[in-house]
């Protein structure tokens, strides 16, 4: 094509002009023949019917080459060639032309051959149809035409091949049933070239052709009427239309197949999720039935369940993604796919929700088991603490500490009772959940596994109940013992208090019961008060004795030795003996004082005109003796059985009482003297 071209010019018969430039180098006739065949295949049949004018430019070639080319035209294009113009060099072939006259061979060649100089070529062809090489004005860029032709050839080849491929793909998708369409999807599904690239090349080529046609002389290149024939603009448009049509169908086929492929991929992924959840996933849950027999065992089962949940989470994430994809396809899908998509979505949702429910149920069951074992462990620790408290011997310091210990014991027992109640509630809740396991047992008989769990739960609750009952029995015994100890301490405290009271009564008797009365009547009143005072002391002593006897009984019941009863009883007896001795001394003094005051008052109240009352002077002697005895007793201390001594009141108190008795004895003595004086005067008279 570099040496042979169709310039686009036309001869006077409107036939195309074919230019064959020859050079000094050896020309290959085979290549020239092939090039001619190619160039002659470009024009339309209508153009070919008008014939060709061939310009053989032999100015740079030899005569034998020119002659060979002309003869070759006879074999290649005899019918299409109407005129052959051989452009000869100046004065080079003149002597050799006579050896071969082309015009004489016109009938045999089938076309006319003329030898002409370049400057005389315009005689046969208009200058406007000749290029500048031949003195014409036709603008022609062979490299530009060659590049355009190469683009056209490439586009034609690619578009034709692409049309065949697209037609095969589209027709294969239109024929047969669903299975045949599925079988048609093979390695040749994709075209060998990119349709978008080919279409873009065609549009660019068409745009270039249209631009050359309408630019005119403004673009510097004049338009030749042969452009349509040489570059086949209609053919480009036709190919583009066919490509667009087939490509549109191909895009729809691709969309349908892409949708089908996506649907199949979704279906495959759905089945993968379903198969795993109903296979390995369900098998994992089938093997997990235990609840553990302790907190540690339940926690280990929870950790194992979390691992199972982690594996399920990966598949649930795939489920979420698939569900979104299915939802998108449902929104944009065709009617024929809706039923299948909804069925896939429903199947996937049913399996995933069922498996998620089973995982949640298992998690709740293990959490309930953990709470049950936690409560059981707390209750066991409470029972151990209570039992340890009950096993320690009680050695309180006083009743208050016993009351505090008893209160703490009652609080612990109440806490145990609440703990057992909580254990029963947790256990019953756990049993209720276990009874619901059969509803999702995958057809497996879970009676054996459930029975083991139920027996364990019931066994724990029964064991705790028995331990609590034993502790309650021990608490009852301990409560009774502690109450007896409280009574023991109370009796000891009250007995000690009785001793204190009796000691206070003794102290009051010695310090405040001093007066002997001013007359017989007052002394008798004091004597009566003293007897009541003694009765109070007697009651106090008896109360103390009773308390000490109760202490002995409680000590025998508690099998312990009282810490204070052994000391309290001797103290009580000692104080009581001291009080008895002191009381007897007080009674003796009051009785003596009553006798003294009664006799003295009788003597002092009798009239002097009744001398018969004083016939016996021994009464005076008696009262003097009683008074002296009373005075002597006031100075004598009270001697206790242990040899200790104690005085009534203070010395001043005793001195005051003695002074009153002496005053009365003086009055009696004066009375005695008065009575003796009349006896002395009577004999004298």
TrEMBL record:
Domain (CRAL-TRIO) spans 1-142
Domain of life of the organism encoding this protein: Eukaryota
For this UniProt record, the keywords arranged alphabetically read as follows: Repeat
On whether Repeat is a keyword of this UniProt record, the answer is yes
Query: What InterPro entries does the record tag this protein with?
Result: CRAL-TRIO_dom (IPR001251), Spectrin_SESTD1 (IPR056804)
Q: Quick check: keyword Membrane in the entry?
A: no
MF terms per GO, please?
Answer: phosphatidylinositol-3,4-bisphosphate binding; phosphatidylinositol-3,5-bisphosphate binding; phosphatidylinositol-3-phosphate binding; phosphatidylinositol-4,5-bisphosphate binding; phosphatidylinositol-4-phosphate binding; phosphatidylinositol-5-phosphate binding
Task: Write down the Pfam families for this protein, in alphabetical order.
Answer: CRAL_TRIO_2, Spectrin_SESTD1
Q: Which family does it belong to?
A: Belongs to the SOLO family.
Q: Which PANTHER family match?
A: SEC14 DOMAIN AND SPECTRIN REPEAT-CONTAINING PROTEIN 1
Q: What is this protein called?
A: SESD1 protein
């Amino acid at each position: 094509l570099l040496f042979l071209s169709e310039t686009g010019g036309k001869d006077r018969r409107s036939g195309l002009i074919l230019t064959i430039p020859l050079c000094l180098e050896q020309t290959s006739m085979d290549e020239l023949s092939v090039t001619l065949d190619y160039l002659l295949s470009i024009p339309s049949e209508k153009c070919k019917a008008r014939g060709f004018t061939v310009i053989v430019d032999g100015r740079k070639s030899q005569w034998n080459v020119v002659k060979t080319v002309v003869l070759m035209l006879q074999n290649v294009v005899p019918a299409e060639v109407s005129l052959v113009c051989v452009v000869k060099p100046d004065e080079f072939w003149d002597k050799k032309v006579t050896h071969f006259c082309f015009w004489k061979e016109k009938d045999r060649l089938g076309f006319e051959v003329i030898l002409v100089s370049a400057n005389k070529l315009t005689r046969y062809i208009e200058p406007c149809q000749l290029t500048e090489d031949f003195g014409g004005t036709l603008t022609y860029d062979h490299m530009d035409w060659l590049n355009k032709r190469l683009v056209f050839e490439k586009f034609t080849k690619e578009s034709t091949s692409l049309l065949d491929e697209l037609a095969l793909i589209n027709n294969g998708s239109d024929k047969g049933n669903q299975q045949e369409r599925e079988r048609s999807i093979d390695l040749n599904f994709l075209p060998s070239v990119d349709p978008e690239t080919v279409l873009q090349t065609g549009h660019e080529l068409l745009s270039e052709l249209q631009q050359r046609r309408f630019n005119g002389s403004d673009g510097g290149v004049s338009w030749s009427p042969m452009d349509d024939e040489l570059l086949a603009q209609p053919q480009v448009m036709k190919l583009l239309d066919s490509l667009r049509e087939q490509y549109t169908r191909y895009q729809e086929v691709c969309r349908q197949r892409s949708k089908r492929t996506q649907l199949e991929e979704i279906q495959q992924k759905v089945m993968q999720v379903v198969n795993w959840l109903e296979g390995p996933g369900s098998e994992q849950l089938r093997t997990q039935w235990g609840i553990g027999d302790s907190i540690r065992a339940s926690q280990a089962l929870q950790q194992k369940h979390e691992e199972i949940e982690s594996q399920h989470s990966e598949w649930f994430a795939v489920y979420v993604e698939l569900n979104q994809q299915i939802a998108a396809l449902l929104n944009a899908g065709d009617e024929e796919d809706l039923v299948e998509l909804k069925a896939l979505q429903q199947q996937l949702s049913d399996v995933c929700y069922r498996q998620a429910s089973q995982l949640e149920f298992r998690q709740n069951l293990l959490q309930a088991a953990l709470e049950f074992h936690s409560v059981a462990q707390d209750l066991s620790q409470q029972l151990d603490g209570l039992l340890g408290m009950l096993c320690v011997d009680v050695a309180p310091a006083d009743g208050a500490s016993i009351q505090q210990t008893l209160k703490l014991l009652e609080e612990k027992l109440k806490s145990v009772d609440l703990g057992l109640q909580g254990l029963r509630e947790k256990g019953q809740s756990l049993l209720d959940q276990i009874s619901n396991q059969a509803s999702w047992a995958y057809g497996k008989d879970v009676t054996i596994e459930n029975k083991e769990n139920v027996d364990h739960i019931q066994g724990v609750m029964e064991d705790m109940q028995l331990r609590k009952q034993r502790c309650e029995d021990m608490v009852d015994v301990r409560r009774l013992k502690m109450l007896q100890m409280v009574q023991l301490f109370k009796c000891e405290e009250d007995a000690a208090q009785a001793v204190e009271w009796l000691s206070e009564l003794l102290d009051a008797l010695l310090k405040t019961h001093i007066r002997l009365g001013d007359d017989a009547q007052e002394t008798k009143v004091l004597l009566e008060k003293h007897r009541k005072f003694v009765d109070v002391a007697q009651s106090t002593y008896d109360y103390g004795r009773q308390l000490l006897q109760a202490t002995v009984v409680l000590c025998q019941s508690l099998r312990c030795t009282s810490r204070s009863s052994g000391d309290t009883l001797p103290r009580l007896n000692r104080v009581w003996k001291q009080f008895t001795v002191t009381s007897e001394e007080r009674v003796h003094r009051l009785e003596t004082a009553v006798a003294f005051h009664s006799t003295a008052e009788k003597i002092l109240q009798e009239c002097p005109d009744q001398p018969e009352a004083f016939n016996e002077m021994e009464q005076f002697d008696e009262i003097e003796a009683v008074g002296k005895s009373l005075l002597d007793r006031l100075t004598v201390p009270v001697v206790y059985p242990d040899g200790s001594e104690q005085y009534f009141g203070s010395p001043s108190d005793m001195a005051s009482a003695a002074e009153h008795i002496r005053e009365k004895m003086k009055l009696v003595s004066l009375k005695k003297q008065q009575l003796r004086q009349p006896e002395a005067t009577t004999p004298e008279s």
